[in-house]
Design brief:
Layout lengths: L1 E5 L6 H9 L3 E5 L15 E4 L16 E4 L9 H6 L3 E3 L6 H16 L2 H9 L16 E5 L3 H12 L3 E6 L10 E4 L3 H7 L2 E4 L13 H5 L6 E4 L8 H10 L3 E4 L19 E3 L10 H16 L1
Helix pairs in contact: 3-5
């Protein structure tokens, strides 16, 4: 098929050779927001991320296949494309390892009071802190038990945490003590010392964490969002951080980039990063493997 590769994926020559060996003709669109660099009406397959934020599916009358470089589907008109018979793949599993490691690092940063020691080091102060906590034995709730959620459960359970999951479709896993249906979320939140949000952004998950939801959380809990910012009501999060939570590890926000006026920048109990948790030096080879395997099955 005629395959369009956007700048969201930068393939190695070896990968391009494998694609050519499958019989595909490759075209390139370096910037997804730019005008078409080739005749879209001839394109049958796309490998990209946000192409359909800038170009209509109507521009691709022959489209049969889409491979996303993201784990999320929220940047593509899934229902419209599926109604046209287009097969859509995401990058499932590609970013799970770095995201789980990020969640663990963020929680440990709060539990081990690393900001205190960083500031003490900068000021050449020999300053102990008696409020350092252990993760061992803490209760963890992972909301969304896909590949990222399972990777989080694996790394936290390895440190002795008791991990529960909440998911739209409960299942059994060696890394979870139990996976509950979404209807049991409030009860699970009340038991958890750490809550990790890994759900996709859907109509039913938009602002799932509002004032009422945060009120169900345990006093002194840590909230981690490595999913999508729009799952969380920003005002409710600020209130919870001031009145209820020990802290939060935030990689995604309701509006990105985060505005300079946001109080989150100056909150000592917040670990804040710019939608960076997915980055890892193993992503390239994992993404290539997913792309080539899916293309091979389709060919």
């Amino acid at each position: 098929m005629n395959l369009l590769i956007t700048g969201a994926w930068k393939p190695r020559q070896e990968a391009l050779a494998s694609i050519a060996a499958m019989g595909h003709s490759v075209y390139f669109q370096p910037m997804e927001s730019d005008p078409p660099s080739t005749d879209f009406s001839r394109i049958q397959g796309v490998i990209g991320n946000g192409l359909f934020l800038h170009h209509s599916p109507d521009d691709f009358p022959c489209l049969r296949y889409v491979q996303l470089t993201s784990a999320g589907f929220d940047r593509v008109p899934v229902e419209e494309l599926q109604a046209r018979g287009v097969l859509i793949h995401n990058a499932r599993g590609v970013y799970s390892i770095p995201m789980a490691e990020f969640a663990l690092a963020g929680v440990l940063q709060l539990y081990k009071q690393m900001d205190h020691f960083r500031c003490a080091k900068q000021n050449h102060l020999w300053s102990k802190h008696r409020g350092v906590l252990e993760l061992f034995g803490k209760k963890l709730c992972v909301l969304g038990c896909g590949s990222v959620g399972q990777a989080c459960a694996k790394v936290f359970s390895a440190l002795g945490c008791e991990v529960e999951g909440v998911d739209i479709a409960p299942f059994t896993s060696p890394y979870f003590r139990h996976v509950y249906p979404l209807e049991s979320l409030d009860q699970a939140l009340g038991r958890a010392d750490v809550v990790i949000l890994c759900l996709p952004l859907l109509a039913g998950t938009l602002r799932l964490f509002d004032e009422t939801r945060f009120s169900k959380m345990k006093d002194g809990a840590v909230f981690v969002n490595i999913s999508r910012g729009k799952l969380v009501d920003s005002a409710a999060l600020l209130t919870a951080l001031r009145e209820k939570l020990r802290g939060a590890v935030l990689d995604v926000f309701e509006e990105e980039p985060l505005g300079q006026e946001s109080p989150l920048w100056n909150m000592d109990n917040v670990v804040l990063t710019p939608h960076n948790s997915f980055v890892g030096d193993g992503n390239g080879l994992r993404l290539e493997k997913v792309i080539l395997e899916n293309l091979e099955k389709f060919s």
